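Example 3.
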Amino acid sequence: MKTAMLDAASAAALGTDWLEAAVAPVSPYGERLFARRAPFVPGREAEAQESAERVAAVAQQLDPERLDAVRGVLAASPDVASVVARASLGETLDDPSLLELLRFCEAIERVDALLAAEAIFGPIGSEAVGALAGALAPGKRGPRGFYLAEGFDPALGQARGALAAAQAELESARGRQAERISAELGRDLAGADEFILMRADMPAALPAGVRVVREAATYLLCALELGEKSIAALERRESALARAGAAEESVRERLSALVRTHAAQLDAAAAALGELDVLLSAARFARTYQCAPAQIVSDVGLAFQGGRFLPLAVALEADGRAFTPLDVALHDAVVLTGPNMGGKSVCLQTCGFVALCASYGLPVPAASAQTALFDEIAWLGMGRDAELGGLLSSFAREVVRMQEIFERNAPRLLILVDEFARTTTPHEGTALCIALLERLRERNACGLLATHLGGVASGAGARHFAVRGLRGIAARPPAADLRAALAALAGEMDYTVAEVGADELSGGDAIALAALLGADGRFVNAAYRALSQ
Amino acid sequence: MTAGDELLDLASAAGARTIFFVGTGRNVGKTTSLRATYLAACRRGVRGALAAIGRDNDGAELAPAQRKPRIFVRAGTVFATARRLLARSPASEILALSRLQGASGPLLYARAMEEGSCDLAGPATASGVREVVAELQEWSDLVIVDGAVDRIAAVADSQGVIVIACGAATAHTPQEAIDDVTALVARLRVERYDPAKPALQLEGALTASRAAELVARRETRQIVVGDPTQIALSGKAARRALERLDLRCLRPLRPVAVTVSSIGPERSFEPRAFVRDVAAATGLPAFDLYAGERAA
């Protein structure tokens, strides 16, 4: 997928690689199509909606076994694009290419048979595919093989019969000669082009038909020479071989001409396989991750209930933990606050991921969703901008990236800002965040600015959302078990995001979290004392 | 009985369904030995399959002198080759296309339907070689592989056996040729390690510098490598290391015979003495296919 709507840092933050792997097609046709496709952008809402609904319909209607069976056939289907192209240019195809075409036709027949009962799919096979499959059928050998058999043309059988006879005649002549020489020398020469005769064991005279290649003090290196009968038989054999070769080439030319005639339809069938592959891969994704089509709207906004950032949800599930689905409703640029480890960054990533899925024409990982399409989805924040190199400080990198986003000037921007200006003084950091929000409002951008800084929402006149935070202080697990601490934290954390008053302060749970994560008691008490002063 | 018959018998006695032919260098009669064994199999009605590993015949890359000779195969013989090396005429039956790549591109398995010459090819990796051998065994009783010493790890700990070719082409004197093949055979015959005894298992290859370090500190434990091809020593270094260290492996190989070619492009050795001395030095049966000599 050509993801020009995201820069590299944003793509990394939002799990684009993960998503593309999750919806990756399995056939070369699907891979080519997928690589050429671009996300849906504003103005193409109806197409994005139709795509997501079609994917969802396939995911719902096609049973998983059948879906996987079709994907298995697609995965095993050879790539015949270059074969068809070479035939189109007048090349006479070789046998491996003909085998690939045969397997391509068989794959189409198998896919059509598997999907015949499904009303949502039309057949991919065409008259051309049928004609080619029929023409290649005499060559089918077992489940994976091909032979330019006599069934293609009776002349092949005749030419091969003549070749076999000529070969037998040559072998007989050579065999008789080798047998005679072996008998005269008293040793078996089977399989030897050259052989050594020890002078001590040599007969008085070399047998007729033996040529000396090299003489040494104790032996002669010799070779067999063909006699007149053998030479005549060899000439007949070569002639028969040429006739058999011509007959074989004639069949290949006929089959290649058929491919040339039907090239356009074969290309269309290959393209249809690609479309099917992309569709089934998306449907498999939607079914696996319980995705539903979002309502794609033309007004700026992003809202979902039960949204999930799938790369993290899958990782948590593998670790025996669960992702807490999120509800978010945005139509402008707002502020998000909350405690450390309360899921602010994940909330941003979930917004970006849901919007990304929608722009790919996929159902989204949410119970329900409504979203616009965006020209750019931008991530601005922590830990995702190493590509700018080590010469810039983290603050400098943020500023450079922010300016780049401004200069790209995407008409419709979804921006996800994770603790911008956190490394400067709180006073100036707050001012920078306010300025950023004002600029985003001028641009009519949609997004979230997550921060620990107070006074940003009121200063910018922006709506303020907050993660609810810890319900209580979890008991510290014994023996500094980090996994247990994280589990205890997850149990006590309320990840719900809700709109709050502009000046409302988020719960400050950092010291309690430090204690839970294993900071020693003296340190924690000192922190609480300092806080109270 | 021909040398090919005797090599077949040795493989059969070892319960092998694969024979790898490797050489101490070029022009030492490896392909001649392979061909003789293949023809002996054909005469006995054994369904043979052929493959090659290492470099194959890519005309764009190799000078004629470097190219492997084509093999004349009987009808019914199964072989592995590259798609681009498959002769158009006489047409062969393609048994399957492989996802593996050789030096000349994607590989396939074919069966000769008429007698004729073919180019053999195979993958460069040990896992690829194992896959090719396993595929060929589906269609044959015996797989004969034109091998390369650095790729025979693929047959380690399997039922395959190895035949080693040596000859006058790669040595200035008979003794030099004998030293080379003796060192190679000794390396390939390194035994399986004894789990009841102390052992030092190496990660990766045993190099000359590592061997020198172990000798210097008078290491008495078993020195264990994955398979004998990971002993990256040759000639005198290999011989000395084998004398002074208790080298062992996890997955042994099974060399069963040596073939000799007493004639080379630039020199030749006295055949009868050469085959006798090679057999004595290596402790394996030795055959000179050109002279019809054997020694054990």
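The domain at 3-180+253-295 of chain B is CATH 3.40.50 (Rossmann fold). The two ends of chain B are 15 Å apart (CA to CA).
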